Amino acid sequence: MLRLHVMTSEDWPLWREVRLAALTDAPHAFRARLDDWSRGGEKQWRERLTAPGTYNLVAVLDDRAVGVARAVPRDGADGVVELRSVWVGPEARGRGVGDRLIEAVEAWALRSEADVLELTVLPDNESALALYRRNGFDLAELDGAGQQVMKKSLRGE
After folding, report:
1. Sequence-separated (6 or more) residues with CB below 8 Å from residue 39
2. Side-chain half-sphere CA neighbours of 153 within 13 A
């Protein structure tokens, strides 16, 4: 059975476990690097989970952490929430985990009165692009780092 766990600062060991698993499994998919986070102590991990306005989820399948997603208000852009750090472990891919994570972030963003959900993804990450397209994201533009920006309107506009 799949359940989504909303993380608090007390959950930092689980957050660390799944985030390091993501950075180990798919280093090409993230701007952050394993070396940046593997040395991080409790304070660094707790701060990540208590940053103002953020929403952090871990997907747990059969009592094992298999996925992660994070939502962050976009600096300087009222009504825009960034979807970040999405990852599903190899053993859970193709089982709807990514869809459930995105749906939960979208519901939270709506409750937070956001108008747009935005993300960046590497242009050659076809499985991620398919996941995001399936969940209603449209291609926007390339950002300054060569990543594809995708957006989804949350208010049906």
Report:
1. none
2. 3
Per residue in 15-48, pLDDT (tens digit) is: 999 999 999 999 888 877 777 776 778 898 999 9
- List the structure tokens of 84: 């970040």
Angle between helices 42-50 and 12-25 (to 10 degrees): 100
Model confidence pLDDT, tens digit, residues 91-113: 999 999 999 999 999 999 999 99
How would you list the strands of the sheet with 116-121, edge to edge? 2-6, 55-61, 64-73, 80-88, 116-121, 148-153, 138-142
pTM: 0.92
Asked if residues 136 and 151 have their Cβ atoms less than 8 Å apart, the reply is no
Place of tokens 């599903």: 88
